[in-house]
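pls read this stuff:
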Amino acid sequence: MKISDLLSYGQENAVPLRHLEKMANMPGRVVRRMIEAERRAGTVIASDNQHGYWLTDDPAEAERFSRSMEHRAREIMRTARAIKEAAGID
């Protein structure tokens, strides 16, 4: 089974994680891992914190989602560097 089979196109059709858990009969952690694997295999699954997950074939929407993921990655790296610095780790 693929999580993308449970999704529709467009943010207006987004499915929250808790609903995907029920639909797939799997815990959220497993669902998120499956989504990540599908994304890495080329399925364009977008998401946000308000609506959930959806498919997109809109390049502008995919770009917005990609930028949000890049921003998140930068923020995580900033936090990691701050922790290393505070702990005196090289």
